[in-house]
Amino acid sequence: MEVDNEVRLLLRFYKNVPQKTTVLLEKFENFKAVLHPDFYVKTSGNHVWLHIKGAQKKYYSPHLHLELEHTAEDQTYIRGLFGPDPVLWSFFMFLHFLIAGVFLIFSGILYSNYVLKNAITTDLWVLGLMVFAWFLLYFIARQIRHNGTDQMQELELLMCQIMGS
User: Are the C-beta atoms of residues 155 and 82 closer than 8 Å to each other?
Assistant: First the structure.
């Protein structure tokens, strides 16, 4: 999977596996019982989450969410989604909402000052800073995704090993 050429921050993949969904879920449950020192698995219904733990876990460590869907007799369709740590994702969403709120407030102030024929340079500066902050958050998120590329490949390899066992 080529990570750096993607525009999206959350990487997805789709895969058809010639095994029953129940068999695959059982394999993930068996791996969960082994207590691996570097990874842990959570399952809920037809959803599986693979996480990195221990000394390998960094702030940029991704997790892998798999949705297993029964399609044919002995066929499972897997939807995979690599995502950042939920705490980091929540922090980024908080920053985005904060920037969007400031942008909207100063857009209203800019319009009022424009209609009243007051100075609007400060408002334009703040709006420009908010646009710059949005781009900055995007590039920071891309860098975090780039830092986690090796761990994404580890999680994908782990998924393949579990399904192949």
Answer: yes
Is the residue at 1 inside a domain? no
Question: Per the domain annotation, does 3 fall within a domain?
Answer: no
Per the listing, tokens 């791996």 go with: 31
Look up the domain containing 59 and give its range.
Answer: 11-84+149-164
CATH code at position 25:
3.30.310.80
3-class DSSP state of 126: helix
Beta strands in 22-136 (DSSP E): 39-44, 47-52, 63-72, 75-83
Its pTM surpasses 0.85: no
User: 9 falls in which pLDDT band (50, 70, 90)?
Assistant: low
Q: Are 60 and 25 within one domain? A: yes
Q: How distant, in Å, are the alpha carbons of 46, 62, 85, 132, 154 from that of 11?
A: 20, 10, 14, 24, 15
Q: From the DSSP assignment, how many helices (H) and strands (E) are in the chain?
A: 4, 5
Both tokens assigned to 103 = 């942008």
